[in-house]
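Fig. S4 source data, part A: sequence.
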Amino acid sequence: MNATVCRSPHFIEGRNAGSPTLAALPRQVIDTLYVWQQRSVDRRNLMTMSHHQLVDIGIDRAEAWREASKPFWKP
């Protein structure tokens, strides 16, 4: 009888220890936290912009308020 040897780099001692999804999880968490933090800062800054600055970026005060009122986790 010939034994089949699994040569997959993701198979270690009977577990899927090298799963790309699991391995990428810390990076995904860091990336998500960064996006949330940046969103929070950007929305806070919207509320401090002058009328002229808002016009320059193409939004009015009401749109700025709506955007700034969103929770940080919502795009």
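Fig. S4 source data, part B ends here. Confidence is low (pLDDT under 50) at residues 1-6, 8-12.
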